[in-house]
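User: For a benchmark we're assembling, each entry needs the component sequences followed by a predicted structure for the full assembly. Here are entry 17's components. Please fill in the structure.
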Amino acid sequence: MDINFTKEDIAFRDEVRDWLNNGGYPKHVKEKTDKGITISKQDQIDFHKALAEKGWMGYNWPVEHGGTGWSATQLYIFNKEFGLAGCPPLLAFGVSMVAPVIWTFGNDEQKAKYLPDILNFNTWWCQGYSEPGSGSDLASLKTKAVLENDHYIVNGSKTWTTLAQHADWIFCLVRTDSSGIKQEGISFLLIDMNTPGIEVKPIITIDGEHEVNSVFFTDVKVPVKNLIGEEGKGWTYAKFLLAHERFGIASVGASMRQLNKLKKIVSELDNPELDKKICELEVSLSALEITELRLLSALENGGHPGAESSILKIKGTEMQQNISQLYVEAAGEYAIMYPGPHGYSSNDKPAGPDYAANSLSAFLNLRKTSIYGGSNEIQKNIISKFVLGV
Amino acid sequence: MNLNYSEEQVMLREQIQKFCESEYDFYTREKIVKSSDDFDSNVWKLFAEQGWLSMAFSEENGGLGFGAVELAVLFEEFGKALVIEPYLATVVLSGTLLDKSNYSKKSDLIEKICSGDMHISLAYAEANKNYDYLNSDTTLDNNILNGTKTLVLNGGNSDKVIVTCIKDKKLTLVIIDSNTKGVSINSFKTIDDQSCAEISFENVEIDNDAIIACDLEAIELINESINLATLCVSAEAVGCMESCYLKTVEYTKGREQFGQPISNFQVLQHRMVDMFVESELAKSLLFKAMLEVDSNSEDKYKHVSALKSQIGRSGKLSAQDAVQLHGGMGVSEEMMIGHYLKKMVSIDALFGNSDYHLKKFAS
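Assistant: Structure for entry 17:
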């Protein structure tokens, strides 16, 4: 047993670090994220384009499709270093959600049409999964696609669609058959967001942000060639996709960065209760990190860690939430002040610590993490069913 | 022993509930929040007409002479409806302080508070004082006031401000008009849709008769006022906790996934039972604290601290669970449930958080 990374892995880590620290990570984006300011659509594009230029956009892609072909360990290191550097989370919808579905189940024409644009971040994707009546029970979805000649006519609505207001494309689970069991009538469609009949309505969250949306489809005409794989097999593709979504779900790097910043803040407060809580979180974070490494090691040695990765989702999101909670506690009385997600403008900033407004923003925003991507309750069901076998 | 509310207290609760249901539903509240004003002055007028603005004051000063129990009832109901009007700032923090003081001009001020014609804020906090409200860098020398106060609740809307300051090394309370020369007020929104201000005083001239109290008297007035306010926000939290579990039970009964209401799932049932139990326990500590304050016992500070410490933790947890069980709807601004979480964060932060009050309780 050896808990250390190999020389090659360490060289790789240094290469990632070098890129992040020496101009790769766009400066104007870094300045905003370091201050906790919400970044714009253009900032997101600049950040992802920089990554594409470096040849790292396909970080979890095989070489044959233009990806890096990195090992699971390299992928882990890459993700952790990006988190430690405070980068915004990479937008997963194109590169690590729809792309693997396209290269695995799509035809050659689809691969040629969509993959290069994803790899160069020329297209912004969003995910059309959840519906008002279908959250945890995703397979009950009702958005309907009816085949008429060479088009599907799509009617229905999707909800909690992250950044749909910026998206060029949406990959959708739609119902093409209601006759059999609910999982069997689902198909996987790619829909151009500019198609007539699509309406995006913002959902404002409790942190005041516009991050998620409702997307309504009224008689939206989608060419048959936008169907991925076979009609009725969408659920299989969706499950395949969810396995890819696990990448980086523990957010260990990002949590380490947040916890280190918090330690500095709290070290000046003379607050033993808070000191103790931080120590407890440090221990938990270490446990989370090593758990992720153990799963990684199993994967590198030919294993198939399956449902165990739900531990990472549960504990990773709890960790993020708990750290944000301590930031709020560190803000003390100033936790009552909240300027909204964009902070105070420089000329009217009140007294109180600089981190107070961002702390609240993060605390409120991170409530979603234990709800999305399969709520933590669903993750526990997965563990009890597939790991404990009960 | 009798731990039941009196008939009058039950009637008061029903009266407030009726008002909140008919005049202050969440939709109405949202309209007020999104308006350019920090609160609705018509609602404030209604409070005056109902007698709620007078209930906390002694009869000799024109009030109804109600005690801490009635105030707690009011705040519990305000908590359920997430009322944003500045009752805490004007009536509890400032009004009851004046009521208990020996300030010569207090009856006129209290009369105006009762009629809804005056707002007064208490400027008790300063930056980096860590909840030590008796410690102030604001000075009163030769009737000249200098200093900066922070987190002054409703400070941007008040006609007058009561300021804690140091005169001859002793804590002193002065009251001044907000529009006095040298007073500058910068108002901010709070996380729970209320407002607070940073107020600075630059060579502000104070009249001799502006001094409310000095030294031990001032200390006692501040301690009592903050303690009563702490009790009130804790009662507000208890109201929020009750709403959190009730609304969550209602939501999970109506929300169907996997072909059945999600309330059928035992794991969610137990979470809601925990929320209910925590709500009941908080209510018990509220009973103890409000009765101790009502009887003006020696232990009144201690028991308010016990309550505040408990609701700081369990209130936030309950609201977090409520959000979680509402799923995506829980983090959506258009649902009421997420706003309870913001309220609980705000309440924990005010007047000393959970850790602070646990320490205070122990000492």
